[in-house]
TrEMBL record:
Native source species: Galemys pyrenaicus
Name under which the protein is recorded: Atypical chemokine receptor 4
DNA-binding is among the record's keywords: no
Entry GO terms, CC: external side of plasma membrane
Transmembrane segments annotated in the record for this chain: 46-69, 78-96, 116-135, 156-178, 198-221, 241-259
Similarity remark: Belongs to the G-protein coupled receptor 1 family.
Keyword Zinc in record: no
GO biological process terms held by the UniProt record: calcium-mediated signaling; cell chemotaxis; immune response; positive regulation of cytosolic calcium ion concentration
Superkingdom as given in the UniProt entry: Eukaryota
């Protein structure tokens, strides 16, 4: 899940390699992917720009409200705050990726490694926090979670998620480099072979999609079943939210991980031998990865902005600063530092 995925290593060839006394028959299978590069130069910067602007705005609001205004936080609030931070850090890598698509990598090997690792850390941790949010929502509906020990367990979960994500980024720090002074790509030693490459790819798929999807699917299914069986509550809106969360996750993440899985299988068995098919796979990974990234922009809408509690906080902020700008000295404001305890956020008060 790093910068090199957008452009295959076989895009560029040293001109000197094609000169001299060589048997040119060995180059008859070289696949020139000029149209893939041209598509990337147009599509990726445009898509990354939109995702960057929309995602930074939405996630910044979430971080500001949860970090500075919401004094008492539920476990879901803490996970959503960490999710927003992960999304922000992920989105901050997009300008580097946009420049890479147009001009190649110009920032050196160190930044290649760091940016690739940050991308993997925040993409993976974001998916893991989505899974933990589903777990907490299920327990909230079941009302089986006691306040005692909640803060400690929440911190432990957050540390665990970030640790796993950092460990998954080790291959980016070790193997990514600037190839031919053009591409930020992974270069594996011959001793590791294709098995290691495919294993890293499959591990990313498992930790970044399969495991979170299974956890979310099970938890939200049980949550929906519990809601349906619970009398005297409004069920329609919470169920719609659950359905929207699952559908958006599948639509944005499934295509990208299917293409990645095909790439992993091809690494092992070399199934893609046709140049046209190879080009279509490269185009597919660009488009589907962009769609997967856009999930970072949708998270604030799905998990925060639709909540009644968060809407109240936004209204309070707007009212407070709107009144301040109008300099209405006699208008009574609702203080954010009230001594009264904040009502715990319900995951389904939507």
């Amino acid at each position: 899940m790093a910068l090199g995925h957008n452009q295959s290593a076989d895009y560029y060839y040293e001109e000197n390699d094609l000169n001299g006394t060589h048997d040119y028959s060995q180059y008859e299978m070289v696949c020139i992917k000029e149209e893939v590069r041209n598509f990337a130069k147009v599509f990726l910067p445009a898509f990354y720009t939109v995702a960057f602007i929309v995602g930074i705005a939405g996630n910044s609001i979430v971080v500001a409200i949860y970090a500075f205004y919401k004094k008492q936080k539920t476990k879901t609030d803490v996970y959503i705050l960490n999710l927003a931070v992960a999304d922000l850090l992920l989105l901050f890598t997009l300008p580097f990726r946009a420049v890479n698509a147009v001009h190649g990598w110009v920032l050196g090997t160190a930044m290649c490694k760091i940016t690739s690792a940050l991308y993997t850390i925040n993409f993976t941790s974001g998916m893991q926090f989505l899974a933990w949010i589903s777990v907490d929502r299920y327990w909230a509906v079941k009302k089986a979670l006691s306040p005692a020990g909640a803060a400690r367990s929440t911190r432990l979960v957050c540390v665990l998620v970030w640790t796993v994500a950092i460990l998954l980024s080790v291959p980016q720090l070790v193997f990514y480099t600037v190839n031919h002074k053009v591409l930020c790509v992974p270069i594996f030693p011959h001793t590791l072979g294709t098995t290691m490459k495919a294993s890293i790819q499959m591990l990313e798929i498992c930790m970044g999609f399969v495991l979170p999807f299974l956890v979310m699917g099970v938890c939200y299914f049980l949550t929906a079943r519990t809601l349906i069986k619970t009398p005297n509550i409004k069920k329609s809106r919470p169920l719609k939210v659950l359905l929207a969360v699952v559908i958006v996750f599948i639509v944005t993440q499934l295509p990208y991980n299917i293409v990645k899985f095909c790439q992993a299988i091809d690494i092992i068995y070399a199934l893609i031998t046709d140049c046209g098919l190879s080009k279509r796979v490269d185009l597919a990974i660009q488009v589907t990865e962009g769609i997967a990234l856009f999930h970072s922009c949708l998270n604030p809408v799905l998990y925060v902005f639709m909540g009644a509690s968060f809407k109240n906080y936004i209204m309070k902020v707007a009212k407070k600063y709107g009144s301040w700008r109008r300099q209405r000295a006699n208008v009574e404001e609702i203080p954010f530092d009230s001594e009264a305890p904040t009502e715990p956020t319900s995951s389904f008060s939507i």
